[in-house]
Amino acid sequence: MGKQDSPKSPxxxxxxxxxxxxxxxxxxxxxxxLKNNDPSLGRRISHWEKSTLVKSFExxxxxxxxxxxxxVCSGKRQIRWLRRHTKSILFTFTLMGFFLLxxxxxxxxxxxxxxxxxxxxxxxxxPKDRNAGYEYDQEKSPVMYSRLLHMAAVSLTERDxxxxxxxxxxxxxxxVAMWKPCADKxxxxxxxxNNRTGFILVSANGGLNQQRVAVCNAVAVASLLNATxxxxxxxxxxxxxxxxxxxxxxxxxxxxxxLKDDIDIVKELPSHLKSIDLKSIxxxxxxxxxxxxxxxxxxxxxxxxxxxxxxxxxxLGFGNRLGxxxxxSRLQKLRCKCNFHALKFAPKIQKTGSLLVKRIRKYxxxxxxxxxxxxxxxISTVVPFKTEASPSKYLALHLRxxxxxxxxxxxxxxxxxxxxxxxxxxREDHFPLLLxxxxxxxxxxxxxxxxxxxCPLTPEEAALVLAGLGFDRGTYxxxxxxxxxxxxxxMLPLKSLYPNxxxxxxxxxxxxxxxxxxxxxQLAALDFIACAVSDVFAITDSGSQLSNxxxxxxxxxxxxxYPTLRPIKKRLAAIxxxxxxxxxxxxDNRVKKMIEEGQRxxxxxxxxxxxxxxxxxxxxxxxx
Length: 624
What we know:
Elements: H1 25-35, H2 47-59, H3 61-84, H4 86-108, H5 112-117, H6 127-130, H7 146-162, E1 179-181, E2 199-204, H8 208-224, E3 228-230, E4 233-234, H9 246-249, H10 252-258, E5 265-266, H11 271-274, E6 284-286, H12 296-310, E7 312-317, H13 329-342, H14 347-361, H15 369-375, E8 395-398, H16 403-409, H17 416-430, H18 432-439, H19 446-451, H20 459-468, E9 477-480, H21 487-497, E10 501-502, H22 504-507, H23 510-513, H24 520-532, E11 536-539, H25 545-557, E12 564-565, H26 569-576, H27 584-598, E13 620-622
Parallel strand pairs: 2-3, 2-4, 2-7, 3-5, 6-7, 8-9, 8-11, 9-10, 11-12
Antiparallel strand pairs: 1-13
Helix pairs in contact: 2-3, 7-20, 8-13, 10-13, 14-24, 16-17, 20-21, 24-25, 26-27
């Protein structure tokens, strides 16, 4: 028989108390503690001691006194044990407290509103779920990818702890630095002053960027037809509500001087041509009479005869009415010279633009050829805004999520039935022709439009892309663009992940913005500058004129130092469709590959705008 204290020894049945043995309540509790090895006894009691104590209740109260004495000795031993291990116990409790504090600190990094407003993960592609409970208020945000947003928040917190900087602050491919600006070289004139065919007037429509393209196209057409260009006029639009003219936005004298060796430019028509009714003599040409992206032959065959006959032609509208192919090299180069060299912003725009950039960057000296082109002498003359919180670099984000873009796309953005009704009402008021056209075609479901990459990115999707690329929570972001559809509630996911989000209205005082009030094109010029000189420029819609022109400037003057992020919406939609299952590591890896693909060094593709992709022999020079 083994020792009684051995783990293999069976417990003697005689030592197990029986509730029927007549023990009182106190004795029963005591024996129960013995059976369960209750730690309140002060130490572990051997089987022999248990047996002795049980028998004492049955036979002799004096034994109880003896066992009480043993309990006192046991307590003294416990005190001595506590004294010997005091430091270890204190260290254990201190370590536990530290981990609790660290957990609390990490949780506090999350915006409580953000966590409150994001619903639990669900099937993100159920139309019924997406349309439930939409409200137009500032307390509820339409969230389409709650699971990914939670993972993004955790990833950003970990990145903050690691202090790891993303590689996307720099160009992905160093070969971009091999391309240099060279469109400003002198060109051979198409004709002589004595052989001019007549005068060309242009009244350009649209906003700042559409008008800029129209001006440079007019310069190329004037050279093609050997005509004199009158300083272009800008049409007033109920959409843009801006009465600005050429010299309100650009430096007229600089424009004329830089192009004087290429074409003749005058401020206004000769007096004998001012009173002519151009429509009655057939010299008024509207957009409907010119093909979109017309070829040089169309101008020579259709416009030149009018010019030779009447000595004047007036292009009314002139939106995208000159193509990018079948054009002589000298005319392509002239377009680039106009856009990248001749069109300099007016002094008041340069001055305020310089102030805007300095309040983000906090510097007071010229930094690059790009900033010198856009800001001129004002780059070093304005005292920077004094704030210790201003970072040295920033990312500019152009969100194309205005109500007209959202409504026209026919996509679903997770805002529920109220949003659906509101957008349909907007289409009826502003896009009746679109609705008529849709009646004659087979409707495309909103989820299919998204898969095709035809939906503008939401602020939520833009935030996920930036988080996937590794931009940390402290990234300073300049937000360009008009009013975001949905307002503050729609911006909540982006603002929660990236709290350092500012606009020109945040950085400039009311008195500094006052000269630009009611001049939307001039305000857009400030956004143009802030985006163009940013350390990183992120676009959400490749069809945006501002995004195209800004990215073109960064390519032309960037010298390999101005990366642009272009999400491929079709690929991004495929990634986001896996919201309910994809892991964060897979998500950010696929997003990074998508952006790197868009940053590959390519020359201008056939049919592409030379204003967006100036990397070609007609506009830039490659140095090996």
